[in-house]
Amino acid sequence: MSGYETARRIRELYPSSLLPIIMVSAKAEEEDIVEGLKCGADDYVSKPFKRAELAARIRAHIRARDAFAEQQARARLGSARWLAPPAGLWAILHRMQAADQQWLLQHNLLPRNVQRKLRNGETVVAEHHGAVTVLWAEVVGLPRLAAEVPPLELVVMLNSLYTSWDELCEEEGALGVDFSGSTYVAVSGHDDNPQHMELILRYVPPSVE
What we know:
Organism: Monoraphidium neglectum
Helix content: 40-55%
Shape: extended
Largest sheet: 3 strands, antiparallel
Strand order of the largest sheet: 3-5-4
Enzyme class: transferase
Strand content: 5-15%
Number of helices: 9
CATH superfamily of the largest domain: Nucleotide cyclase, GGDEF domain
CATH architecture of the largest domain: 2-Layer Sandwich
Domain Response regulatory: 1-62
Number of strands: 5
Main location: membrane
Pfam families: Guanylate_cyc (PF00211), Response_reg (PF00072)
CATH topology of the largest domain: Alpha-Beta Plaits
Number of domains: 2
């Protein structure tokens, strides 16, 4: 499948307001750029490219997307509680894309014991924990909700939900490790806390509310 076809299919599933596409190609002729933009790309970068320039373009598109999402949320919901930028969901997406160790440290996305090792210059290897408790939470009825609620409204709703769960994790000392679609996974005991099960049990009632 060509890059043009890939962009076309992605755009059929997701609008630019939710998923910007930056096409990077060795083809630099005018007709190639025009074709890429016609297929749904929001930007087109020809190889060879400068890393700093590409990073700046990515940040610009992310800012534009977030601003558009906030504007649409205001228009659709008309409620002051939705005026905050939808940072939680996008932060998770950025976290998935981040490969830089310093970025992870700066945003406090790793367990504290792992952060200490990285800051001390140690090499982090897989660790064994004798006992942990894993919480698997699911948004019941999400497919039905997705069919009934406008996409941007659904994104804002999920953003608010996952952000609140992240905040609960931080308050209780748990660690949010993954979210995929309608599920959210948190773990306790990763820091060898012997009260890991009680910790998760304290987490559950407010997360349901």
